[in-house]
Amino acid sequence: MINLTKEKLLSFLIYLASTALGAISFLYPFFTPGLEQNVPLSQVRAGQAPLVYSLLVALCLLVILFEVQSQAVDAKLIALLGMLVAINAALRFIEVAIPGPSGFSPIFFLIILTGYVFGGRFGFLMGTLTLFASALITGGIGPWLPSQMFTVGWVGMSAPLCVPIVRLVRGEGKFSEILVLMVFGALWGLLYGAIINLWSWPYIAGPSAHFYQPGEGWLEAVKHYSIFYMVTSFVWDLGRSFGNVLLILVAGSATLRALRRFKQRFGFSYQPLEGQTV
Fold first, then answer.
1. Angstrom distances, CA of residue 19 to CA of 153, 177, 269
2. Residue 11 and residue 66 in contact, taking contact as beta carbons nearer than 8 Å
3. Domain spans, the chain
4. What pTM did the predictor assign?
5. How many CB atoms lie within 10 A of CB 204?
6. Tens digits of per-residue pLDDT, 152-182?
7. In terms of CATH architecture, what is 2-8+44-265?
8. How many helices (H) and strands (E) does the chain have?
9. What are the pLDDT digits (tens) for 39-71?
């Protein structure tokens, strides 16, 4: 029991560190006096990106090494992770080659469902490694990549939050389970865009009504960003939100059955980040 407690504590600290690093990387410009604006998009956070990217990849490797050496995971789950990441990276390549409507992206579907079935640690790795692998395939490596990896990792890491809701409505294996996941996917479709915008928003100069003004208070910043988001991103993110809902509605039940069958057949004992089994 002592070793198990230590393992859970170390795992929690790893994810706390990754979440804190991500939050700091998004929010630090708001604490920077004399922030330079009117920066070309290709140069936004260019100096910060290599360090944050290296730390994030190192955290992912640390998580994998830690999990492999613990009783929480074995080589079969790592193989499954690699296979699912490859599938999702291929889907993102198709998305880039043949852009869908608005902000639609097929990659969130598997990240949400695998995080829901296999837990927050698996979901976090699924999200971050999908963005990493797909960036290599599509040539999408740039200063924006670490922020994308963090945010998509948070999508998978938070998926087990659906578990207690599904249990509350006794919905496992029923349409109510799919409905909970559809709502979760819809919310993250909007939230993903709202978070990612913070990567560049502080560096964009414009009218004070919906652009950041260095030195302004938090309430004013939130007000200005809310207007900016509604004007520039909300409709675009609705496409992503609707896409998540549609994919979960159409393929969610079959995919959940396949993932659970795989989990049961190979005897996975993987535990979600929150300490709940699914």
1. 9, 27, 25
2. yes
3. 2-8+44-265
4. 0.85
5. 17
6. 999 999 999 999 999 999 988 899 999 999 9
7. Orthogonal Bundle (1.10)
8. 10, 0
9. 766 666 766 667 776 777 777 777 676 666 654
